[in-house]
Amino acid sequence: MEEECTIPDDNEIETLAELFKIFGDTTRIRILFALCGEERNVSGIAEALDMTQSAVSHQLKILRTARLIRARRDGKQIYYSLADEHVHTIIGVGREHIEE
Predict the structure, then answer these.
(1) CA–CA separation, 47 vs 84, rounded Å?
(2) Mean per-residue pLDDT of the chain
(3) 9-99: which CATH topology?
(4) What's the pTM value of the predicted model, to 2 decimals?
């Protein structure tokens, strides 16, 4: 646990700050929750969140660049899911924290 409290170098601090900026947008948080536990295509996410497909696509690009989601192609469709268990943990712990 001590290692986690050691101040990282400037590069790592910058990378962490950029990661947390991604979580600073309510639309992206909603998309992450929509993908929590199941994969969906753009139209499925748009429908679940009552958003346009273009708005969803824009946010998906940001989330993919940040490596928070992954994409899987099936024919002409692309399905999105959370990148790994870490992302699930981050949003779950964040939710627990605000509900305390």
Answers:
(1) 24
(2) 94
(3) Arc Repressor Mutant, subunit A (1.10.10)
(4) 0.89
